[in-house]
Design goal:
This protein is α+β, with helices and mostly antiparallel strands and 142 residues long. The chain is built from four helices and nine strands; from the N terminus they run H-E-E-E-E-E-E-H-E-E-H-E-H. Strands 7-8-9 form a three-stranded antiparallel sheet. It has a two-stranded antiparallel sheet with strand order 1-2. The longest helix has 12 residues, at 3-14. The chain is globular.
């Protein structure tokens, strides 16, 4: 995804002036580091440098939708720290991040509105994705 589109999604979810956020697994990300897996920064209040780059994850893998299907549904996106996104990979419906098990589920929040989308639940079944945490969803799919 192009950086401009990714930043647009960030701005909608977190606000244009929000520079630091945690992904659904609690890993910090920095707004300007979209797609950057190498740059290190010191987060305010810390002393050690880390890589805070992030990517747009397809909660349910694009490969599940076939060549002709529209897999780029906005409600299937999750902003995720790059190493968490790559660890998750295309594992579906279950995956692990830092030895914790998660599961991909159909989004009941946007699904009740007739929209397609997916979410992530932790091992207790609690929604941790942005839609579940904020009880929000994109009202359009593209």
């Amino acid at each position: 995804m192009e950086k401009e589109k990714a930043l647009e999604i960030w701005d909608i979810l977190f606000g244009k002036d929000t520079l630091w956020v945690q992904d659904c697994f609690g890993t910090w990300m920095y707004r300007e580091d979209y797609g950057d897996t190498e740059k290190k920064r010191v987060r305010p209040g810390n002393t050690k440098e880390y890589k805070y780059g992030w990517e747009i994850d397809h909660i349910r893998p694009k490969s599940d939708f076939g060549e002709n299907a529209d897999s780029d549904l906005l409600n299937n996106y999750e902003i995720m720290q790059w190493s968490n996104n790559r660890t998750k990979g295309n594992d579906y419906p279950q995956f692990e991040i830092n030895d914790v098990k998660y599961k991909v589920v159909k989004c009941d929040i946007c699904g009740n509105k007739g929209l397609k989308g997916y979410g992530i639940v932790n091992s207790e079944g609690k929604r941790i994705d942005w839609k579940g945490r904020n009880n929000k969803y994109f009202t359009r799919n593209k």
